[in-house]
Automatic annotation (TrEMBL):
Residue stretches spanning the membrane: 34-55, 75-92, 113-128, 201-221, 284-317, 329-355, 367-385, 397-418, 430-451, 463-485, 491-510
Gene Ontology CC terms: membrane
Cellular location(s): Membrane
Predominant location: membrane
NCBIfam families for this protein: MptB
UniProt KW Glycosyltransferase keyword: yes
GO MF: glycosyltransferase activity
Pfam families: MptA_B_family (PF26314)
UniProt KW keywords: Glycosyltransferase, Membrane, Transferase, Transmembrane, Transmembrane helix
Species this protein is from: Saccharothrix syringae (Nocardiopsis syringae)
Keyword Phosphoprotein: no
Protein name (database record): Alpha-1,6-mannosyltransferase
Bilayer topology: Multi-pass membrane protein
Length: 527
């Protein structure tokens, strides 16, 4: 372990694995086609089960309106596609496993990812309606109003076409997103106006820009920390959670995480691995540039700011590892991030109101959030014991306790990274995971904040098996509609049953090609 938490011997010590042999290339071709068919099924099924805008052209369109009238069948088609994409990703993993003598090349993985993403670029949003909130909040900013003071219903009106698409729980709430994101969204709204579908498409392009940043940064960071680049890309950029919830779901985490990862790579670009060596002007310039990018990521979504702390640890260890070096690094990053953030707030004209709206999401009480779930359980126990209904108070208390715990965990990880006991990037992934899992709201795509940094630095088989299993399970459990079923709860089990049967039939029809992929890889893996 070196001063920056980098693995010195592994930059070259990763070694270049041999290319796939002819049978493996044929298997790779089957995996690509299998996943592409799954993505195409998701695109077709989204016409009936996607989160279409309130005023959708689909019901009046010949042929396409058929999917709208068959929501259960459409959802079954989407779920079949989801099963195919996830299974293709799992099969692809055998050719990206660290320690395997033969790995797929970067270009083979890039082409596979491109084949799977292309059909998903043009689908209706699924899994969430957040993109419609983005459009409404961006339009508020485009109108010259303050999106940090007014919700869509107040600023645009209840009957406005953009407000109608926003979920009811968010119609009265101000924007919880950073000024950089809303400034870019304001430009999109100026271009698209009240046209919903073009606005959705441009916001998806923004997410794809963030994904391109991630694809650029992941292999470079992985090489620094001793992980094969294709292994990091497979677990990170090709992850079904990325495809489903960032690309299809159009979540701005894609842009925020991309900026954060690019910032880390740029800051480390000219940082030597020898501690205590003289600091050059070029090194400082790259650190400033990297810190600027990370701060811009935080100006989209605030969790990216935690990367500044772990970057500071790497800089301090590079400068000598003394406590005074840590203070110097902290002051440098504080100055850079402060200037960039203030410049962003003032330059966009949106001000600092976003600081007061960061807790807007906490108004939602979801069982997916551990502290909220504990509050519900405590409240239920109080009712059983006839102590009264104290659910709301217990939820508030548990959120305060778990947030304090998450701060303590992040602080401990920072100190361990400074001492050289863990890699700083591992601490970043674990810290982000703790902050988000113990936060007031937890969504499936939040997992990516932890998974993507960890994909660049962790070789341990146990972690990669856990991350792979968790990603695959989480990817298929969330219904694609992103909305309630209005009393028609039977739709989901019927759709899932149909999808399981359809997927089994696909495997049966293609059994000669697929069955070899189901056998365990005989080649030894890494620990």
């Amino acid at each position: 372990m070196t001063a920056g938490g980098l693995v010195t011997g592994n930059r070259a010590g990763i070694g270049e694995a041999a290319a796939l042999d002819a049978p493996e290339r044929r298997q790779l071709d089957i995996i690509r086609r299998w996943g592409t068919v799954g993505a195409l099924l998701m695109a077709v099924g989204s016409l009936g089960s996607g989160v279409a805008p309130v005023f959708s052209p689909l019901p009046g369109t010949p042929l396409l309106s058929l999917f709208v009238r068959m929501p259960t069948a459409s959802m079954a088609v989407v779920w079949t596609g989801m099963f195919m994409v996830v299974s293709a990703w799992l099969w692809l993993g055998r050719f990206a496993r660290p320690g395997r003598p033969r790995l797929m090349t970067r270009s083979q993985l890039d082409r596979t990812l491109l084949m799977w993403i292309t059909p998903l670029v043009f689908v209706l949003p699924m899994f969430s309606r957040d993109v419609y909130s983005y459009l409404a909040q961006s339009q508020i900013a485009a109108n010259g109003q303050d999106p940090y003071e007014l919700g869509p219903a107040t600023a645009l009106g209840v009957d406005h076409v953009l407000t109608r698409n926003v979920p009811n729980i968010w119609r009265e709430t101000p924007a919880p997103y950073g000024p950089l994101f809303l400034a870019v969204g304001r430009v999109i709204s100026m271009v698209t106006g009240d046209s919903v579908l073009p606005g959705v498409f441009l916001h998806r392009l923004l997410v794809l820009l963030g994904l391109a940043m991630t694809v650029w940064a992941l292999p470079r960071l992985a090489r620094r920390f001793g992980v094969p680049p294709v292994s990091a890309l497979w677990l990170g950029a090709a992850n079904p959670l990325v495809l489903f919830h960032l690309v299809v779901g159009v979540h701005n985490e894609g842009l925020a995480i991309g900026l954060m990862l690019v910032g880390l790579e740029l800051a480390l670009r000219r940082m030597p691995t020898t501690p205590g060596a003289p600091v050059t002007r070029e090194e400082l310039l790259w650190i400033v540039l990297g810190a600027t990018m990370i701060t811009m990521g935080a100006a989209v979504k605030i969790p990216a700011a935690l990367a500044l702390g772990f970057l500071g640890v790497m800089i301090a260890r590079r400068w000598g590892g003394r406590f005074t070096d840590l203070v110097r690094a902290a002051l440098l990053l504080l100055l850079v991030s402060g200037v960039v953030m203030v410049g962003t707030c003032v330059g966009t004209g949106l001000g600092f109101g976003w600081v007061e709206t960061l807790n807007v999401a906490s108004t939602v009480k979801s069982w997916m959030s551990p502290p909220t779930a504990m509050g519900f359980l405590g409240g239920g126990l109080g009712l059983v014991l006839k102590l009264g209904n104290h659910t709301d108070s217990l939820i508030i208390l548990m959120r305060l306790v778990t947030q304090a715990v998450s701060v303590a965990i992040a602080g401990t990880l920072l100190w361990k990274a400074f001492q050289g006991r863990i890699k700083a990037v591992n601490g970043l992934g674990a810290g982000l995971g703790a902050v988000l899992v113990l936060g007031p709201v937890l969504q499936p795509w939040y997992v990516l904040w932890a998974a993507l940094p960890l994909a660049t630095a962790v070789l341990a088989r146990r972690f990669r098996v856990f991350a792979t299993t968790a990603s695959a399970v989480i990817a298929v459990v969330l219904p694609p509609t992103g909305s309630a079923f209005d009393g028609r709860a039977y739709i989901v089990p019927q759709a899932v049953t149909g999808a399981v049967v359809a997927f089994a039939l696909c495997v049966l029809v293609a059994r000669r090609q697929v069955l070899p992929l189901l056998r365990p890889d005989p080649l030894p893996g890494s620990v």
